[in-house]
């Protein structure tokens, strides 16, 4: 039993399904205690200190969720890039564009991202973690561009009179270098 006091409220009814009659016995409840769920109490609990601690923990957890969000997207982006293949076609190019421009767009709007966490003790650490996650996404996308041959990295890409590098080996199937 939760309390020994009996609170009588209006219009509380109960149905006894264990009665021998088919419809059950409907009666007005005199004791309200057995209608309340387990753990319920009518008394007001004063836990303002616990609420403030709980709120600060939730804010800290939420801020770290936002800060580590870009790093959590990296495995999915790697999988999408793998599934897109290494050929130069519209789908892998769109994936690369998304991989490059999404973090850049997010970094340009970092003030709105961290607006509500400015007074957090760990604000600098949160921003660094968030920035590194976005930067790693850009680096992975640029690596993918390089592996697909989309970045001008040799002198023959810039100068017309230079010969292109000769490919020393060819890989068929599997993964290309």
TrEMBL record:
* Domain of life of the organism encoding this protein: Eukaryota
Q: How does it sit in the membrane?
A: Multi-pass membrane protein
Q: Does the record carry Endoplasmic reticulum as a key word?
A: yes
Subcellular location(s) of the protein: Endoplasmic reticulum membrane
Q: Record's Pfam families? A: EMC4
The UniProt keyword set, sorted, is: Endoplasmic reticulum, Membrane, Transmembrane, Transmembrane helix
Q: Which InterPro entries match?
A: TMEM85/Emc4 (IPR009445)
Q: Which GO terms describe its cellular component?
A: endoplasmic reticulum membrane
- The residue ranges crossing the membrane are 79-104, 124-143
The UniProt entry lists the main location of this chain as endoplasmic reticulum
Assembly and binders: Component of the ER membrane protein complex (EMC).
Q: Which family does it belong to?
A: Belongs to the EMC4 family.
**Under which name does UniProt file this protein?**
ER membrane protein complex subunit 4
Give the organism the record lists: Hydra vulgaris
- Gene from which this protein is expressed: TMEM85
